[in-house]
Specification:
296 residues; mainly beta; 6-stranded mixed sheet; 4-stranded parallel sheet; 2 helices; 21 strands; 22% strand; elongated
Length: 296
């Protein structure tokens, strides 16, 4: 029980409190002042794997529960603005109201049995760190609207049942581990808005058969597309690329049978040699690589 005089729940306050089954939010708990000094802190309920119900005092002007999910209200109105927490034991799909502009850090993290589809609001701006991390049963498609400009690291980490991903044109940066271990994805298209793909952004997406990189990608960091074991057809490295990190395209196992060919255009000789070295992690001689890496 949270005391009625409580005005702030600190970051990770109930971390790994595995026996907590219910939480009641008192009216004294007010919305953040912008500095994180009030309200519900980051990841406050992360690891509460037995959490079934969240309730809010009817007098609260800052928070509300809708369809079992905790939301922060906008400026003491009745408008649901930030999705704060879905109970870890939730199994049926969640309807997110169209007024929501942010899905907070750790909001669905640990909802291992939550099924999809999750329809993201058309005005969504931000998806926080680990927001859907470890949602292993979340199936169907994730469609990021063009209004979404911010993704947190590990946002969809280990969403291993996710079948389709559509990234909107508002995303410039795909952060570290964002879609790692999404093993059921079959097709992946990086839009032209994306310039930076961070470390392990799509690590171990072993089911992807088709990968298309946008024309403005400048940086592909280490292990970004490591273990794309099912990749087939042509993978074109756009001329915009200026950096390719260690093992960015390592362990493309189908390369042994030449099911996948990597094509490069006018990228620098250094980047070409980086690809020669890290495309599959094997000690091939350059002539072997030239069978795989083809200049356009």
């Amino acid at each position: 029980t949270i005391l009625n005089s409580t005005y702030y729940i600190c970051d990770f306050a109930f971390l790994n409190c595995t026996k907590v089954t219910s939480v009641h939010i008192p009216a004294s708990l007010v919305g953040t002042d912008g500095n994180g000094d009030y309200g519900v802190g980051i990841g406050a309920f992360w690891g509460t794997e037995s959490l079934e119900t969240i309730t809010v005092d009817s007098k609260s002007r800052s928070y509300v529960v809708y369809d079992g999910v905790l939301y922060k209200l906008k400026n003491n109105t009745t408008t649901k603005e930030v999705l704060i927490k879905c109970p870890d034991t939730r199994t049926n799909c969640v309807y997110i109201p169209p007024t929501v502009t942010e899905i907070a850090d750790y909001a669905f993290c640990g909802c291992e049995n939550l099924v999809g589809p999750i329809n993201l609001p058309s005005n969504l701006i931000k998806i926080g760190e680990r927001a859907f991390c470890n949602c292993k049963s979340l199936d169907g498609a994730i469609n990021l609207p063009d209004t979404t400009t911010s993704l947190g690291s590990c946002a969809f980490y280990t969403c291993e049942s996710l079948e389709e991903l559509n990234i909107g044109n508002g995303i410039n940066d795909i952060p570290t581990d964002c879609f790692a271990y999404c093993t059921s994805l079959k097709k992946l298209t990086i839009p032209n808005s994306v310039t930076d793909i961070r470390e392990r952004a799509f690590f171990y997406c072993t089911g992807v058969e088709s990968l298309t990189l946008g024309n403005n990608v400048a940086s592909i960091e280490s292990w970004a597309f490591d273990y794309f074991k099912s990749l087939k057809g042509d993978l074109i490295i756009p001329d915009s690329v200026r950096k390719i990190g260690t093992a960015a395209f390592m362990n493309l196992n189908n390369i042994d049978g030449y099911d996948c060919y990597i094509k490069v255009g006018v990228i620098s000789n250094k980047l070409y040699l980086d690809l020669l070295r890290w495309v599959d992690g094997k000690n091939r001689v350059e002539e072997e690589y030239k069978l795989i890496l083809r200049k356009i």
